[in-house]
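Margin note from the TA: students keep mixing up input and output lines. Inputs are the sequences; the output is the structure of the whole complex. Example:
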Amino acid sequence: MTVTEETVALGMTADGTFVAPGQPGSVVGVKPRYENFIGGHWVAPVKGQYMKNISPATGQPFTEVARSTSEDVELALDAAHAAKDGWGETSLAERAAVLNAVADAIEANLTMLAVAESWENGKPVRETLAADIPLAADHFRYFAGATRSLEGRSTEIDKDTVAYHFHEPLGVVGQIIPFNFPLLMAAWKIAPALAAGNCTVVKPASPTPWSILKLAEVIQDIVPPGVVNIVTGPGGEIGKALASSPRIAKIGFTGETTTGRLIMQYAAENLIPSTVELGGKSPNIFFADVMDADDEFLDKAVEGLVLYAFNKGEVCTCPSRALIQESIYDRFMERCLDRIRKITQGNPLDPTTMIGAQNSAQQLEKISGYVDVGRQEGAEVLIGGEQAKLDGELEDGYYYEPTVLKGHNDMRVFQEEIFGPVLAVTTFTDEADAVRIANDTLYGLGAGVWTRNGNLAYRMGRAIKAGRVWTNCYHLYPAGAAFGGYKISGVGRENHQMMLEHYSQTKNLLVSYSTKPLGFF
Amino acid sequence: MDQSGADEQGAVARVVATPAALKAIAQLIAERGPVMFFQSGGCCDGSLPMCFANGEFVIGSHDVRLGDVGGCPFYIDARQFKVWKHTQLILDVGAGEPEGFSLPAGEDQHFIIRSKVFTAAEQALLDGT
């Protein structure tokens, strides 16, 4: 690509790569430091401390955010409580208009937010442009519609007695966002909370606090002050302060199992509800009939296996266990490995990059550790298995090669979420064997089934103990499809109108229209 | 740490700590009082050992105490233990702040787990106990 008015306007360099945020010509402005977003304003942390924010693409800091403390969480809770009555009484039409305006603003800033998200998280910009940011916008639109179409129910108990049921806001909720989809997961949590009439205090993940603050810049004149508040800082300090606060009416969390338990423990102390989504080890199952023809569907199935590398594997539903029917294993895997070899790894801001950088040095180290365990356990490395060394300004970034390990389901690499581009592959004999292996896991978040046989697909989908079974597809996240876990993958659902129930109280008015006394006293 | 995986008594330990981890634990105890560890699983920071003030995390009746490190108890969920029990956990320290709710292992450091698959001899000793 040559430098044209078009590439310059898009914030791209001559080779078609987006200019890094904060650099001259970038579509993303970066301030030297960011404060908390509280009550519609930018508020400095009480103790005046800040922490460096690193881009995993380069391993270098590019801005600072507030290193908040419990005092800042209290300020955010003050702002949210001040706003809750007004927002809770806002008409559904007005509330929906705000959510739609948020969606419009996200869309109007799509490129800016996509580049910011890519730079902070390390994910390829082609994913943020095509998926993360458009889905985030759509999520606000979905809940704008969902809240208007949600009806309370009434029951005629008898001729003169009626039970009315109203949805009432919970008030102020706390929401803790993971690092793998900082903006989309924020949208998943914030949109239903607001749609149900709540105000929220959001804690972004410690490694990815900044893109959400860029979102706050975009929506700060749209959302009434105090309805959305964002406090950044370490989980051990402000995550605990928020989750254990008696001033929240619900806590929503996405993360790992131990913190999930801790969140539920804090919720129990305050007798409030929680929604926790805690990861998985999702099986992706390929039946022999996918190779009955060499056609578009087979091509789709091959891509379906390679989707383990989507977002560099940092997805709670990463299809990180491929179960392939043994009769097609060699032929099918050969095609898949051929496709994996063609994955291009590089600067996340290059729109041709297919796999970017892992989110942090910690994540990179964890992935390496798991591949090491896999080797000790006797897994065969079919491809990859090492950190990827890139050149120039990317040399200190956190890159890992797309990797495939062949082994069996008892290995730890088959049992634990690696959260990297590491696929564990094994074979199965028949349908019963596939179900057995698929369900031989502590987790139950996602699964994939690939077959040309609709009856088989249905049986498998019902037999797998997981909250979502993608059938002849994978990694689609449309608003309106419920998402959540079986087993230790969590409690609750997201991404569906039913979320409005999870963010509401049920008020029952039991009304007598009779004038007659009961006659007891 | 004894690289054979045996503790001072010669028994096979399910969890051991490197000198760096022991130093970090001692420092944490000096600054904040006793701590505890719980091996996590699942999404995001899953697979990392989480360090809390002792008692902060409520231990359930189905949790397994793998052993002690630096005088602090180290637990794992019983279901997770079933699929991890063929490996020894080696508590160590890595660069960077913890990303989740865990206490840091000193300034700009976090606790990590390395793993070693038990040898057949070690496994036999463990199974015998």
